[in-house]
Specification:
The chain is α/β, with parallel strands linked by helices. The protein has one domain: 2-enoyl-CoA Hydratase, Chain A, domain 1 (Alpha-Beta Complex). Helices cover 51% and strands 15% of the residues. The chain has 13 helices and ten strands. The strands form two sheets. The protein has a six-stranded mixed β-sheet with strand order 1-2-3-5-7-10, with helices on both faces. Strand 1 and strand 2 form a beta hairpin. Helix 3 packs antiparallel against helix 12 and helix 6 packs across helix 7. It starts with 11 loop residues before the first strand and ends in a 7-residue tail after the last helix.
Length: 265
């Protein structure tokens, strides 16, 4: 039976599997699961309900269709340019996504089935275990838009793949395929796309049928490394929002919509 709290979150589908595994699917396939204002707000809040649900042991999150999440919806991002109230809401929610995923005691596994960018990539890489299709591609993408890399990158990329690789990929906004992401340590594991969900569910089942306190306390202790980077993360969020007050994001959004190279002065 579908639980009441599942119905609170539009464009996100929940399926209860065996052993307390909750399959969570970002479900806006017509827009490649891009995060609009409503989905962004949901992604900042649902971890509290997952935490409170005694039946959930492990969460597996993936995207509907061919993409995991193509980042922020461009129409939504466009409304944030020079919008103080919109930026305040986005800043708070972006922080809540990172901190609440980190603090949620339930183990979170991402099954990155296709393109993951920006806010969607935050969900993919803030997961405790990230399993990526070799054919999938990811990029933080903020610099391409004309804003500082915020969301999640500053808090986890240097821990995952080292500062040199983090700087290279965040400053160039180059796409990274699954094999490369695995090789540099940005994701936990890469497998062929047709094996992705089977692998994610296998890992989820192993954890869900194991000792729960041991798993949750191990997560809590390991994430103290993430907590130490909180000041850098908060600074990155502030600088990202400050970027929206300048001229570059307007040109960045226009270029992406028109599928051309941006002309940043």
């Amino acid at each position: 039976m579908t639980k009441e709290w599942h119905e609170k979150y539009h464009d996100i589908r929940f399926e209860e599997k065996d052993h307390g595994i909750l399959l969570m699917t970002l479900d806006r396939p017509e827009s490649l699961n891009a995060t609009d204002a409503r989905m962004h707000n949901a992604l900042s809040r649902l971890w509290l309900d997952i935490d409170d649900d005694p039946d959930v042991r492990v969460v597996v999150v993936t995207g509907a269709g061919d993409a995991f999440s193509a980042g922020g919806d461009l129409n939504w991002i466009e409304t944030m340019v020079n919008d103080y109230d919109g930026m305040k809401a986005a800043l708070r929610e972006a922080g809540d996504i990172v901190y609440r995923m980190s603090q949620c005691p339930k183990i979170i596994i991402s099954a990155i089935n296709g393109t993951a960018v920006g806010a969607g990539l935050a969900i993919a890489l803030m997961a405790d275990i990230s399993i990526m299709a070799e054919e999938a591609k990811i990029t933080d993408g903020h610099v391409r838009l004309g804003v500082a890399a915020g969301d999640h990158a500053n808090i986890v990329w240097p821990l995952l793949c080292g500062l040199a690789k983090a700087k290279y990929y965040l400053l160039t906004a180059e796409f990274i395929d699954g094999k490369t992401a695995d090789q540099i340590g940005l994701v936990s594991k890469a497998v062929p796309r047709d094996q992705l969900m089977e692998e994610a569910m296998k890992v989820a089942t192993k954890i869900a049928t194991g000792p729960q306190d041991a798993a949750r306390w191990t997560k809590r202790a390991l994430n103290l490394w993430v907590t130490q980077a909180a000041p850098a993360f908060d600074a990155s969020l502030a600088l990202e929002m400050l970027s929206f007050m300048g001229p570059d994001p307007k040109e960045g959004v226009a270029a992406l919509k028109e599928k051309r190279r941006p002309n940043f002065d």
